[in-house]
Design goal:
A hairpin with a 5-residue loop joins strand 5 and strand 6. The chain has five helices and six strands. It is of the alpha+beta class. Helix 1 crosses helix 3 and helix 3 packs across helix 5. The longest helix has 14 residues.
Length: 150
């Protein structure tokens, strides 16, 4: 697995502080993903491991930021949902943070998540942006409600 342009100290990525900034980037149509980790430098060294089996995955596990064609709700709703799906990783370990990346999909992980190689970091997402996404998610979705609960 290679992380393009990741020489120590040489990566210059943007920091997004509000969801509108991320929404504009995703609306441009570039395939983007989010990952909660200790950052691209550390990921370059360690990659992704399936914690249940202990197997090394052939790429970094990520969550897609571009909506599927069937999605008819606002892009901000999709982004909020995607950003909230794995934010528990950051809550469990505050040294993890969300960052946006692009790369080549080489398969799917055990939770059907895309696995990327040739990764290029694009942006870091601020705590304020994640808080904004969380508010949207809890306002616009039945978070934590399953079919039997409806």
């Amino acid at each position: 697995m290679t992380l393009a342009g990741t020489k120590r100290g040489a990566v210059d990525v943007k920091r997004f502080d509000c969801l509108d900034e991320l929404e504009m980037l995703v609306a441009d149509g570039v395939r983007l993903f989010v990952r909660y980790s200790h950052g691209w430098e550390r990921d370059r060294e360690s990659g992704s491991i399936d914690t249940e089996s202990g197997l090394e995955l052939p790429g970094l596990s990520v969550n897609p930021l571009n909506p599927e064609p069937w999605w008819t709700r606002p892009l901000s709703d999709w982004l909020a949902r995607q950003l909230c799906q794995y934010k528990h990783l950051m809550e469990k370990d505050p040294s993890r943070f969300p960052w946006v990346l692009r790369g080549t999909c080489v398969g799917r992980g055990p939770d059907c998540e895309p696995l990327l190689v040739d990764v290029e970091p694009v942006a870091v997402l601020s705590p304020a942006l994640i808080s904004e996404a969380t508010l949207i998610y809890h306002s616009n979705f039945a978070a934590g409600v399953g079919p039997a609960d409806r």
